[in-house]
Design a protein that fits this description.
5-stranded mixed sheet, about 550 residues, mainly alpha, about 5% strand, 26 helices, 5 strands, disordered N terminus, single chain
């Protein structure tokens, strides 16, 4: 109950005296340099950041060790995981190294961040490169969230709870162990949220500049971060007009350009697509493009039910009830300018995801498929729940009630980890995809070195499965090439001069034409190649 008793001296009692005034009233009190901070001790002795670092690091590292010992493919269960890792290494280790490997559709920054670790063989071929960079990013994100909640509520206790609720969520931890792009996007979004929190509380223009820099980095990680750019630019324009009325034109122009800077990442990506591929919107036209609508989207009512179930499964009933408490009992605290601006900032990626779901561009189902998109709501949920905690503890000063809240928040991660019927949605989705053709591709890649005697290998199979074979083989990536899709090039390729050809049975949009071409010309191809291995999944041909 110590946590609850401490809170009563820092937030709840002053909050009670001021009635329904905003929790930001406490920020001004806390930030007074002449006073002690929450818990009655100076800031120099604060230990919450250290607790956050050590606890999240210990839990995430333990999870990584347990998963890896259970299945060495555990970090690469997601269908795109192997491809992300391979893309990071292909800048140097490939038949065509260089910046061209940035390609299109996938935004480049997560691969650039992975690159130094992917170049270490021991980290790359085991997939350990992902948690090596992902766990520190998770810890930094939690620390930034701690700072945001601290500045908006004035309570170190609530800030500590918010950071731990986020950083110890098993769904988020598992994502941090994979090479998927979400973890990097969350880090830069949190950095933008922290900077904008400081900006609205201090009005110092350097924080608006840092907000835009963070948004630029986030927009180079995930498309849902793109809505952050117009939001920050609009804030810059609003600030610009307010300053201009005071006659300070120099400061007004600075605010304008700092806000406009947030579009730099999006513009850079459009220019890259225009110069490299002839179309600034090529990322929206490719086979697996960001803007390709699925033929059958979920009905709105069904979709709402699926998203609600995903929210309940991922965040738990206690956190969602605290959000409801904030909305129902403390709306003025949520709508107060400083808190409201930060909440709107964190709402932007959520709106993007919801629009994509409603439009059918992102598919989810009742069994957990793509539930990881709900994690884009994490910052909004945690920050709203933090206001809810302050309101609940203001109304119920009993240490028992506050203890129940803390225990309830701590129980959900344990239930997700230990109770199969609850489970960790992101892990379950990823593990459910690592079956059938994906696992056969991994097994074939592991078998390939025993059949290999030098030379290059052409892969005729879907890109994702080809990347899986490349990664699991342990061979240098420059050994492999994935033959192009005739439908995209307009040219039916001749049989390559590689020493080996791997033909996969599984078809996808980018490989179907080539595989069909192989089966149509099998007899003539066997004059140049002989069958080395053939099973239900793959045929390995060797040049005669």
């Amino acid at each position: 109950m110590l946590v609850c008793d401490e809170l009563s001296t820092s937030v709840v009692r002053p909050y009670a005296r001021t009635g329904h005034h905003s929790v930001n009233h406490e920020v001004r009190r806390v930030q007074d340099p002449r006073s002690h901070h929450a818990f009655g001790r100076p800031r120099s002795r604060e230990k919450e950041p250290l607790v956050i670092c050590l606890l999240i690091l210990a839990v995430a590292a333990s999870a990584a060790v347990v998963l890896f010992l259970t299945d060495r493919h555990a970090f690469l269960y997601f269908g795109d995981s192997a491809s992300h890792l391979v893309k990071a290494r292909e800048f140097i280790d490939s038949q065509h190294p260089g910046l061209k490997n940035i390609s299109t559709v996938w935004l480049p920054l997560p691969h650039i961040l992975l690159f130094p670790f992917a170049m270490v063989d021991a980290l790359f071929y085991t997939g350990i490169a992902a948690p090596v960079i992902g766990i520190p990013m998770l810890v930094l994100t939690a620390l930034l969230l701690h700072g945001i909640v601290d500045h908006l509520t004035g309570s170190k206790t609530i800030a500590l709870l918010g950071a731990l609720v986020y950083g110890l969520n098993p769904n988020i931890i598992y994502m941090a162990l994979t090479p998927m792009s979400e973890t990097a996007s969350w880090l830069f979004t949190a950095a933008g949220g922290y900077a904008i929190t400081r900006w609205v509380t201090t009005e110092k223009s350097r924080w608006l500049f840092l907000t835009s820099v963070a948004v630029v980095l986030a927009t180079l990680c995930r498309y849902e971060a793109w809505l952050l750019a117009p939001f920050v630019a609009l804030l810059g324009v609003t600030k610009d007009l307010a300053i201009a009325r005071k006659g300070n034109r120099k400061e007004a122009m600075r605010a304008f350009w700092f806000g406009a800077l947030s579009f730099a990442g999006i513009l850079l990506w459009l220019v890259w697509n225009r110069v490299g591929f002839g179309d600034p919107f090529m990322f929206a036209h490719e086979t697996y493009a960001a803007g390709v609508r699925e033929p059958a989207g979920s009905q709105p009512v069904i979709l709402i039910g699926i998203v609600a179930r995903a929210l309940l499964n991922i965040y738990g009933p206690v956190l969602l009830l605290l959000c409801m408490a904030a909305v129902v009992c403390a709306p003025r605290a949520l709508l107060e300018y400083k808190t409201g601006i930060v909440l709107l900032f964190f709402l932007m990626p959520t709106l993007f995801i919801l629009a994509a779901l409603a439009g059918g561009y992102v598919q989810v189902n009742a069994w957990g498929w793509n539930w990881r998109y709900v994690l884009a709501m994490s910052f909004f949920v945690v920050l709203t729940a933090s206001v809810g905690i302050a309101e609940v503890w203001r109304r119920f000063r009993s240490g028992i009630v506050r203890g129940v809240v803390v225990v309830g928040l701590a129980f959900m991660p344990l239930a997700q980890t230990l109770v199969p019927s609850v489970g960790v949605a992101t892990f379950q989705e990823a593990a459910g995809g690592f079956i059938g053709e994906t696992r056969r591709a991994a097994a074939f890649g592991e078998r390939l070195p025993s059949l290999y005697a030098g030379g290059t290998i052409a892969l005729v199979c879907p890109y994702g499965l080809g990347h899986r074979i490349m990664l699991c083989s342990g061979l240098p990536l420059k050994t492999f090439s994935i033959l192009p899709n005739p439908a995209e090039t307009g040219i039916t390729p001749a049989w390559p001069d590689d020493r080996y050809i791997v033909i996969g049975v599984e078809r996808s949009p980018e490989s179907a034409a080539l595989i069909d071409n192989w089966y149509a010309r099998r007899d003539s191809a066997l004059h140049r190649y002989s069958v080395c291995v053939e099973d239900s999944g793959y045929t390995l041909l060797t040049r005669q």
